């Protein structure tokens, strides 16, 4: 089996020794973790499944005969581990919004829904190097598209086998034949699964693909600087001005979500004064700009983790905003290398 794009040379015989295996796992850890994240929608599950993949690979290293690429061998183990994990858990997919729930108007009433499985953001620090340029001959999505939060949310709607087929073929560039060897079945069955998966995604992307993200430029940098300043000045009007008229706002793990600048303003007017002040720290998630926001409660001196903001800029404004709030949001700070309490909010 080959595994476009970029297969490695076969290692050959004898069986992988420990040093060679360690080099192999180090070289592919990040891309395998990203693959598991796309399959599962969970950063924490991805961590566990990469460890399981390497454990299974080490124990089964005698089964690798050197005729295929070691990268393809590891992807086979990782994908099957993900499919088994999905089969074993109560929810087959994670969400950014409750299916079929209309946008809220005014005060949030849905409350945090801990019983639902929520899609988690992915720190850019954990991403493999993003590849620029055209995708491989069999891939349909560029790397930068396939890490976006909205794209990962969309593929979570697919049944597990369709999700795996789409990731292997349309994101990684495997052929239908190679994917059939991994998932089982025939090339025709893989092509059928791909057709159904692509039809589902087409309903989410009428133009055929996710919003095209340009390279960060001065206009985007200024937008993000204004966003940070608006929060740190606790200026609601300046914050709302940065949104597109048709912007969307989600706040996992709350069920409520909002559509349109005025609806978002009406919601924030009900909560903006809950804290005495905010401190924003720039980061990145899913190849997108992000901020970790710390807040200080009235009559309290400490600036504590409050929310994680993932931003989708478009045409000089913010097209969508996903703000992970407590308790889920604060739990994510550690994964982004951020403390629970900010020691120096003015620096």
From TrEMBL:
Residues 150-201 form the RNA polymerase sigma factor 70 region 4 type domain. Its EC number is 2.7.7.6. Transmembrane segments: none annotated. This is RNA polymerase subunit sigma-70. Interacts transiently with the RNA polymerase catalytic core formed by RpoA, RpoB, RpoC and RpoZ (2 alpha, 1 beta, 1 beta' and 1 omega subunit) to form the RNA polymerase holoenzyme that can initiate transcription. Pfam families: Sigma70_r2, Sigma70_r4_2, SnoaL_2. Keywords: Nucleotidyltransferase, Sigma factor, Transcription, Transcription regulation, Transferase. The keyword Membrane does not apply. The keyword Transcription regulation applies. It comes from the Bacteria.
């Amino acid at each position: 089996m080959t595994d476009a794009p970029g297969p490695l040379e076969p290692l050959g015989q004898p069986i992988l020794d420990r040093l060679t295996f360690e080099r192999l796992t180090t070289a592919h850890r990040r891309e395998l973790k990203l693959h598991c994240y796309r399959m599962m929608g969970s950063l924490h599950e991805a961590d566990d499944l990469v460890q399981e993949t390497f454990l299974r690979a080490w124990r089964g290293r005698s089964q690798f005969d050197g005729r295929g690429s070691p990268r393809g061998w590891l992807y086979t183990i990782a994908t099957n581990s993900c499919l088994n994990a999905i089969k074993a858990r109560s929810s087959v997919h994670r969400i950014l919004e409750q299916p079929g729930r209309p946008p809220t108007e005014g005060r949030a009433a849905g409350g945090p829904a801990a019983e639902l499985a929520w899609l988690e953001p992915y720190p850019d620090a954990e991403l493999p190097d993003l590849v620029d340029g055209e995708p491989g001959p069999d891939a349909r999505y560029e790397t930068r598209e396939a890490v976006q939060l909205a794209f990962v949310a969309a593929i979570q709607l697919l049944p597990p086998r369709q999700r795996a087929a789409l990731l292997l073929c349309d994101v990684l560039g495997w052929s239908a034949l190679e994917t059939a060897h991994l998932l089982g079945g025939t090339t025709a069955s893989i092509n059928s699964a791909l057709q159904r998966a692509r039809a589902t995604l087409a309903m989410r992307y009428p133009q055929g693909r996710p919003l095209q993200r340009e390279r960060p430029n001065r206009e985007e940098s200024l937008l993000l600087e204004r966003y940070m300043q608006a929060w740190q000045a606790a200026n609601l009007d300046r914050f709302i001005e940065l949104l597109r008229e048709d912007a969307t706002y989600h706040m996992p793990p709350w069920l409520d979500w909002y559509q349109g600048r005025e609806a978002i303003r009406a919601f924030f007017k009900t909560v903006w004064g809950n804290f005495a002040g905010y401190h924003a720290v720039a980061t990145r998630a899913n190849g997108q700009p992000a901020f970790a926001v710390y807040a200080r409660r009235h009559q309290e001196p400490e600036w504590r983790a409050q929310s994680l903001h993932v931003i989708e800029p478009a045409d000089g404004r913010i097209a969508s905003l996903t703000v992970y709030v407590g308790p889920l949001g604060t739990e994510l700070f550690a994964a982004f290398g951020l403390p629970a309490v900010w020691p120096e909010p003015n620096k």
